[in-house]
Amino acid sequence: MATAAAGALGLLWSWLWSERFWLPQNVSWADLEGPGDGYGYPRARHILSAFPVAAGIFSVRLLFERFIAKPCALRVGIQDSGPYQAQPNAILEKVFVSITKYPDEKRLEGLSKQLDWDVRKIQCWFRHRRNQDKPPTLTKFCESMWRFTFYLCIFCYGIRFLWSSPWFWDIRQCWHSYPYQPLTSGLYYYYIMELAFYWSLMFSQFIDIKRKDFLIMFMHHLATIGLITFSYINNMVRVGTLVMCLHDVSDFLLEAAKLANYAKYQRLCDTLFVIFSAVFVVTRLGIYPFWILNTTFFESWEMIGPYPSWWLFNGLLLILQVLHVIWSYLIVRIAFKALIRGKVTYPGRIRPRLCTLHSFLTSFLFSMPGGSWTVSSLACVEGRSQ
């Protein structure tokens, strides 16, 4: 019995790590066991180091939010208090929990007669009760400040690392001598930090305030972790660093806009969101397809040829591009609606209040599943919830 189980486990293991799937022709795992330089070649076991790093990142986050983000939030005028508590009422609470959080006119009239309350008073009760379930602005500010800090730091590190990397200036270097491309310490730290950060987000979802986007963000983090892990195992880390850095450049801008919005710096929020939108469209619809996809599809085909994991990797990157198109369309459409509906006249000019687009974004962005390394922040404007 034990022998049969061991044999079945061995077959499963050999199927999961089939060289025919993961590696180009005439390349074996044994070929990648050589010393190389620095950290040798990427190996699946390296991924395990992301877990203690993720625990460390989560611990740093707790300290950061308590001793840095919270004082900053209080300094800009965000109150350390929850939303207004609705007056306790068993009948309305039962309707809210069991039937609807948004009663229609007919139900409001019925509740008004039953309780001898004015309809407007009942509407106010439901509004206050809904607000009770929303995370306080202080909590959202601290979370966004943590994300902003991490995204900005990892982006700066990525730019600094890539600036001295030959494939940043000549992207065909991503495929020279592939897969015999040694893993340097800087590349290893970059990948493990990104992977550990998303594992920390995965863990923290279960202890943070539960939000309506929980399942969507869980699936997004899972997909992100899968993409980073996959590209590391088959040593497509050079092009992977370019993809991660390309996505990080817009993420910290989005978190900065959210911070300005929570602090009620509307003009700053408007400006940051416009910058974010422009950077998002340029990077996701311009640089990504004409620089990244061009090299992963055409230049890599020419230099190393296709094989099973090559097809899967490019398929995932192509799906990511489809999501980029959809998200860009939503951003442009929502910004256009904000321009049409949210114009406020000031002396001598008209200034569009683009932060009104947050209410529009909530209804659209969460209909789309997450699917990129770092696009989770996009899905947070502001489904978390404004």
Automatic annotation (TrEMBL):
SUPFAM superfamilies: Homeodomain-like. It holds the Pfam family Homeodomain. The keyword Coiled coil does not apply. InterPro entries: HD, Homeodomain-like_sf, Lag1/Lac1-like, TLC-dom. It catalyses: hexacosanoyl-CoA + sphinganine = N-hexacosanoylsphinganine + CoA + H(+); sphinganine + octadecanoyl-CoA = N-(octadecanoyl)-sphinganine + CoA + H(+); a fatty acyl-CoA + sphing-4-enine = an N-acylsphing-4-enine + CoA + H(+); docosanoyl-CoA + sphinganine = N-docosanoylsphinganine + CoA + H(+). One of its GO terms (biological process) is ceramide biosynthetic process. Residues 94-137 bind DNA. One of its GO terms (molecular function) is DNA binding. The keyword Protein biosynthesis does not apply. PROSITE patterns: HOMEOBOX_2 (PS50071), TLC (PS50922). Keywords: DNA-binding, Endoplasmic reticulum, Homeobox, Lipid biosynthesis, Lipid metabolism, Membrane, Nucleus, Transferase, Transmembrane, Transmembrane helix. GO terms for cellular component: endoplasmic reticulum membrane; nucleus. Pathway: Sphingolipid metabolism; Lipid metabolism; sphingolipid metabolism. It is found in: Endoplasmic reticulum membrane; Nucleus. The chain crosses the membrane at residues 148-168, 188-207, 214-233, 272-291, 311-332. Its EC number is 2.3.1.24. Residues 92-136 form the Homeobox domain. Its main location: endoplasmic reticulum. Residues 139-340 form the TLC domain. It is a multi-pass membrane protein. PANTHER family: CERAMIDE SYNTHASE 5 (PTHR12560:SF8), LONGEVITY ASSURANCE FACTOR 1 LAG1 (PTHR12560). This is sphingosine N-acyltransferase. The gene is CERS5.
